[in-house]
């Protein structure tokens, strides 16, 4: 593994107003100053833009305390090739973290176009820009880190999911686009010697997360007095991973790029790797809802006497969903000495407290 220092480096973070992206930017400013961060995000309206704006305001507040770092935010899409090329030409990022993507399994069934645009065309633009960063003898990009997803495992029966498993049977377009990212990255790593690492994230949650995720949607519905639907009659298990653990994992991976090695044929072996980042502790959905409701009461989001039973409905599985996600994170532990460890209760407690404050409850 090739060690990379982040100090004084220029880092491009795509999806910088997103849940993981904004938290990564905050962490880098707090712990790796001086650092120069370029953020790009199209600020689309897939979910409440005010949450994205709040995340960006947190970055601005953090910068006030870390004045030796720089932060440049660009509103735009990674699917805009000319814009991406211009960013690379102007800023010459040493490390690229591609987190921009159209997220969500169910939304990919009703709105497939945006997945192709962002997750395929957008990622291709990033790869091309990385490739050309080496033109004319330039040092170029030292490491491309990009978001993949646990959804690439489809309905694999073998658990926990290992990066050694075959993942050729995606059950949603979203999953297929993420698998495509891994394939594209591999070919570019092989052809152009671009060190790249894909990270398969497992159900990321926490404060200021995505409102389309179950814990956030459940909270909104319970507060409005609506009924929450628990899929597969509650027989779903998810490997919930707290956002700070994800960010710590990403930061560590950024600093260790796959080694550039020449093969026996004299050609470069692709400097390419893929890791799972998950909690390795799948939680039953009904237990998860139970902890969530306790923490919402504790934070004062819901009243002590809230009647949860009358607001729960067990329903069948949704198309594109899988019954269980479970990460084998042994490779990440071995190579980077890191394993996520935030408990579900602690993570949901922080979410409930943020929710109360953000919505002025």
Automatic annotation (TrEMBL):
Gene3D superfamilies: NAD(P)-binding Rossmann-like Domain, UDP-galactose 4-epimerase, domain 1. Pfam families: Epimerase. InterPro entries: Epimerase_deHydtase, NAD(P)-bd_dom_sf. The keyword NAD applies. Keywords: NAD. Residues 11-260 form the NAD-dependent epimerase/dehydratase domain. This is NAD-dependent epimerase/dehydratase family protein. The keyword NAD applies. It comes from Blautia parvula. SUPFAM superfamilies: NAD(P)-binding Rossmann-fold domains. It comes from the Bacteria.
């Amino acid at each position: 593994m090739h060690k990379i220092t982040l100090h004084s480096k220029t880092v491009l973070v795509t999806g910088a107003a997103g849940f993981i992206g904004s938290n990564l930017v905050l962490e880098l400013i707090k712990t790796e100053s001086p650092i120069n961060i370029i953020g790009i995000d199209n600020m689309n309206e897939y979910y409440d833009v005010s949450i994205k704006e709040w995340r960006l305001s947190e970055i601005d507040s953090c910068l006030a305390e870390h004045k030796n770092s720089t932060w440049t935010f660009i509103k735009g899409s990674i699917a805009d090739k000319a814009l991406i090329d211009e960013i690379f030409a102007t800023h010459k990022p040493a490390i690229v973290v591609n987190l921009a993507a159209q997220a969500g399994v169910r939304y990919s069934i009703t709105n497939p176009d945006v997945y192709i645009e962002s997750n395929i065309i957008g990622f291709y633009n990033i790869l091309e820009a990385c490739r050309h960063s080496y033109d004319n003898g330039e040092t170029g990009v030292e490491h491309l880190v990009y978001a993949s997803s646990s959804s690439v495992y489809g309905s694999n029966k073998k658990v926990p999911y290992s990066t050694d498993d075959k993942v050729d049977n995606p059950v949603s377009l979203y999953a297929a686009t993420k698998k495509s990212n891994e394939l594209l990255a591999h070919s570019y790593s092989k052809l152009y010697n671009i060190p790249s690492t894909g990270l398969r994230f497992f159900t990321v949650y926490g404060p200021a997360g995505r409102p389309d995720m179950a814990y956030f949607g459940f909270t909104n519905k319970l507060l409005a007095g609506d009924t929450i639907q628990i899929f597969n009659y509650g027989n779903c298990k998810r490997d919930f991973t707290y956002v700070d653990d994800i960010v710590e994992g990403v930061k560590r991976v950024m600093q260790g790029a796959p080694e550039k090695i020449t093969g026996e044929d004299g050609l470069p072996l692709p400097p390419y790797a893929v890791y799972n980042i998950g909690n390795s502790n799948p939680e039953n959905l009904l237990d998860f809802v139970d902890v969530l409701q306790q923490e919402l009461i504790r934070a004062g989001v819901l009243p002590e006497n809230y009647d949860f039973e009358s607001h729960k409905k067990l329903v069948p599985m949704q198309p594109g969903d899988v019954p269980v996600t479970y990460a084998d994170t042994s490779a990440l532990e071995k190579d980077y000495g890191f394993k996520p460890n935030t408990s579900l209760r602690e993570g949901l407690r922080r979410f409930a407290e943020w929710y109360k404050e953000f919505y002025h409850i």
